[in-house]
Amino acid sequence: MPEVDATDARLLLALGEDPRASVMALSHRLGLARNTVQARLARLESNGVLAPLDRRVRPEALGYRLSAYVTVQVAQRGLADVSAALAQIPEVLEVTGLSGVADLLVQVAAKDADDLWRLTEQVLAIPGVQRIDTALAMRRFVDHRLGPLLERAAGEGRGTD
């Protein structure tokens, strides 16, 4: 994945503040040519810098009021198969490989406690899963964010930090 330069960071910050801004509005706001903004946005999208739009939808809006993190210990050499099986479960939002005792950190969304129980049983039934631990997310104190990093990247290009 290519690095984001200061101009890209400024563009992404502007887009974050007004996600529905037109290319023309972004070009005026940033003092860039319309074609420059258009080309940079296209490059950012095609290079995978921009996350899919569905990342902005909160599971709570779909009736999934519980969020939990499941750590999974996997039998050796079973990581790819377990990860593929987890990807087939709609309530699995994200799977991250870890170092340490647990092999995977799985973020799940559930409608209620019974639904979470069903999900954990489903994860335990995957061949290669040896053990899981589940932690219920009680409250989100800091939402997923990149704004501070984008601000730093935008500032670095102008000689500030």
Explain this structure:
- The chain is of the alpha+beta class.
- The chain folds into two domains: 6-54, Orthogonal Bundle (Arc Repressor Mutant, subunit A); 59-137, Lrp/AsnC effector binding domain/regulation of amino acid metabolism (RAM) domain (Alpha-Beta Plaits, 2-Layer Sandwich).
- Helix content is 40%, strand content 19%.
- The chain contains six helices and four strands, in the order H-H-H-E-H-E-E-H-E-H.
- Strands 2-3-1-4 form a four-stranded antiparallel sheet.
- The longest helix has 13 residues, at 34-46.
- The model is unreliable at 157-161 (pLDDT under 50).
- Residues 4-65 form the HTH asnC-type domain.
- Pfam families: AsnC_trans_reg, HTH_AsnC-type.
What's the layout of helices and strands?
Blueprint: H1 6-17, H2 23-30, H3 34-46, E1 66-74, H4 79-87, E2 92-97, E3 104-110, H5 113-124, E4 129-137, H6 147-156
Antiparallel strand pairs: 1-3, 1-4, 2-3
